[in-house]
């Protein structure tokens, strides 16, 4: 009996070794071929952020620096904080995105722009770099637009000589003719792309890049910057908009501290682009109703929370305003729409994309389910802030503005308040009387409804949440009228095609990604589609690996690690080398997952690395050889164990 048990134990040992060999070699492959669970966002191992590595301006006080550091640190981890935990309830939403274009020139003068194309970027100081395409696209776009304009200067022969004092607004002027006139005039000054050091130095010089036009001085007349105009057309193209061939401008009139001239040159009456679209990862299509080419306002310079002056370097910077049509969106879809808008413009090289310096600002319009009350959350420049602001919004709550308690009233209200505080003013205030008369006139004129508030403008405060700042008036209250100093411009289909040819290749849409990889889990592709750089990375990874294996491990293994460590993605060919070690039975998947944080920026041989850690598996032949050697040293007596062996083999 003892002999029989001894033989049986040897056989079991033999089978166990044999089974272990195959399990050790095959279990990783089984995991590789099975669809892994979709983990979504990983919130562990969030690293400490060094504020010195973040973008900040030297003129900021300590409070502003801290605020900026917090916002940038938040945005580094936006995927942890903005995972879209909503209850699928929709809100009627409209989004306005104000984009500073990466043109070397302002919109309607020849001043240098502090949003000039940044074509040389320091990777270690850019919080967005790990998920964006390189600055090469900005260089390509700028050089392409520059060549278009140089060709016009060299080759275009105008039939009539343009005169700035004899523009005929009823007869459009060819863009080529206008550009020829512009570059031959004394107003033109040559500027180009910049590196990071130059741009930082420009940002520190307040009121350095100004002229009478962008400061709104009386008698100064605007003129379109041809280069800035090409950038605006490029924005229309990336959203597949219908582009207007006849381009005109108008004045949007309103009173605000950062707009001393009292109006903004824009395109409310005749937008440059219409009827574009964005496709979300859910498959929902967000319509772009219009895209306007306009100018930015001045920047308020605050010291200890009090506005002291204006920096006109920002005034007149070329803007593209991207406006979505009203649509029922969930909170996570609102956030994704903002991200997609940002990506399409930024990754196509049309903006520097630094949200913390004002290159992108989002206004979110949300409507209550009952009544006409609407709220607009203004000037959101962080995706985390957008997410928090939208989540703070309560559709059932009525947000109202109380001008008496408002700390930053209009200029007229400030003057009225000052008069009231003046002890010598014992009688009625003249300014207050003027204001009341003016308001009564507005109420009694036929179009008085234009000045009836339709909602409330809000700002988001990280300590107080959503705060009302002023009443929101209808769009027709701004008294838009035709800008007489700028000619109507005609752009031909050929010019639009030349502009389009300067843009990078089109970013893949979700539909094309699903069509290209029908065998891959749809949820994995939706996650990959969130960023164009991820889509491009995945495409390259699929040239080395099966598309399903690539998707599973890119989404579930590599991306969570990159997000939690804030490191750059390792090259796709290097990541494929790691996965092939598992596919070729040389490494366990669990060991790869454990060691991957140390390998993101590792440049040596992966095989040697795992061999030094004693983690590299023997191949199948070598494992069989080891088992054979063991069995030779411990031979089995077949005559004593044949029945056990036969029975065991039958089971197998």
Topology:
Blueprint lengths: L1 H32 L28 H15 L1 H4 L9 E10 L17 E3 L15 H20 L17 E2 H10 L9 E2 H8 L22 H13 L3 E2 L2 E2 L2 E4 L9 E4 L6 E7 L5 E11 L3 E5 L2 E6 L6 E7 L2 E3 L1 H16 L13 E8 L6 E7 L2 H10 L18 H11 L8 H15 L10 E7 L3 E8 L8 E2 L6 E2 L2 H9 L8 H7 L5 H8 L2 H10 L5 H19 L6 H12 L5 H7 L10 H7 L7 H14 L4 H14 L1
Parallel strand pairs: 2-4, 3-20, 16-17
Antiparallel strand pairs: 1-13, 1-14, 1-15, 5-9, 6-20, 7-8, 7-19, 9-10, 10-13, 11-12, 15-16, 17-18
In short:
By secondary structure, the protein is α+β, with helices and mostly antiparallel strands.
Structure description:
By secondary structure, this protein is α+β, with helices and mostly antiparallel strands. It folds into four domains: 2-23 and 621-651; 35-53 and 508-617, no CATH class; 82-401 and 454-501, no CATH class; 405-452, no CATH class. The protein is built from 21 helices and 20 strands. The strands form five sheets. Strands 1, 5, 9, 10, 13, 14, 15, 16, 17 and 18 form a ten-stranded mixed β-sheet that branches. A hairpin with a 3-residue loop joins strand 17 (455-461) and strand 18. Helix 8 (331-346) runs antiparallel to helix 9 (383-392). The chain is elongated and about 120 Å long. Mean pLDDT is 77; it is low at 11-77, 79-84 and 124-132.
Distance between the termini: 24 Å
Tally of separate domains:
4
| Helix/sheet category | alpha+beta
Describe the main β-sheet briefly: 10 strands, mixed
Overall pLDDT score: 77
Give the amount of beta strand, in percent. Answer: 15-25%
How many runs of DSSP E, i.e. beta strands? 20
Parts with pLDDT < 50 across at least 5 consecutive residues: 11-77, 79-84, 124-132
Number of continuous helical runs: 21
**Could you tell me the radius of gyration in angstroms?**
32 Å
Helix content: 40-55%
Give the overall form.
elongated
GO biological process, one term: glutaminyl-tRNAGln biosynthesis via transamidation
Keywords: ATP-binding, Ligase, Nucleotide-binding, Protein biosynthesis, Transferase
Domain Aspartyl/Glutamyl-tRNA(Gln) amidotransferase subunit B/E catalytic: 203-496
Organism: Theileria annulata
